[in-house]
Amino acid sequence: GLMSGMAGFAEAAEEAGFDSLWVSELPFDTADTADTLNATGPICEAYSLLGALAERTRSLRLGVVPLGIEIRLPSVLTKIITSVDVISHGRSVLALRLESGADESEVSRVGEALQVCRVMFDDESPTFSGDFYTIEGAVNHPVPVQVGGVPLVVFADEVDLARPEVLEMAGHFADGVVIGGDAETVGSAAGRVGEASAAADRASNSVQVIWQ
Q1: Rounded Cα–Cα distance for residues 171 and 144 (Å)
Q2: What would you measure as the largest C-alpha separation in the chain, in angstroms?
Q3: What HEC string does the chain produce?
Q4: pLDDT tens, N- to C-terminus, the chain (212 residues)
């Protein structure tokens, strides 16, 4: 009854009018996750679960809330989420998380990861070379159903919002950023993300800001 129970939650959320459903990325059942297991039951691999839920829903967007540590290379993650997009007929979302208090190197790494994902969505024979990632002809077939590829979302903690390089990275490469904080903090961050989008020759409203 495990899958039927999970599907029941998704179907109820869809019937209630929710726009999206997000599952948590806890990769292993270990002693560290004992409290979570007691509260929620067994932990399924997140993207496999999304693929199953895609078959049981019709309108929900489907995404994984990332942990903030790299479990999969962005090229592998792009291939996985593209498959979910095909299964769901264009309803997947790809999310990365910036580690809280991330240094400049971590911000650059996430920026490169977003670029790897984007080029694999867009190009027939994707190539990218950076300080952290390099791909050469990492063909991604079948392609995503969504025109322009799967939306790319970055989760950022409130502590990182005051740093211009974080918002610049989101404005240049992401389609959405999930941020926390009070209304003034989030409003200011949204404005700066829009400015970064415009500076990268994107429309000022290219990046959706989601208040967590």
Answers
A1: 22
A2: 51
A3: CHHHHHHHHHHHHHHHCCCEEEEECCCCCCHHHHHHHHHHCCCCCHHHHHHHHHHHCCCCEEEEECCCCCCCCHHHHHHHHHHHHHHCCCCECEEEECCCCCCHHHHHHHHHHHHHHHHHHHCCCCEEECCCCEEECCCCCCCCCCCCCCCEEEEECHHHCCCHHHHHHHHHHCCEEEECCCHHHHHHHHHHHHHHHHHCCCCCCCCEEEEC
A4: 888 999 999 999 999 999 999 998 876 655 555 565 566 666 788 999 999 999 999 999 999 999 877 889 999 999 999 999 999 999 999 999 988 778 889 999 999 999 999 999 999 999 999 999 999 999 999 999 999 899 999 998 877 777 888 889 999 999 999 988 889 988 988 998 999 999 999 987 889 999 98
Structure tokens belonging to residue 119: 């080029």
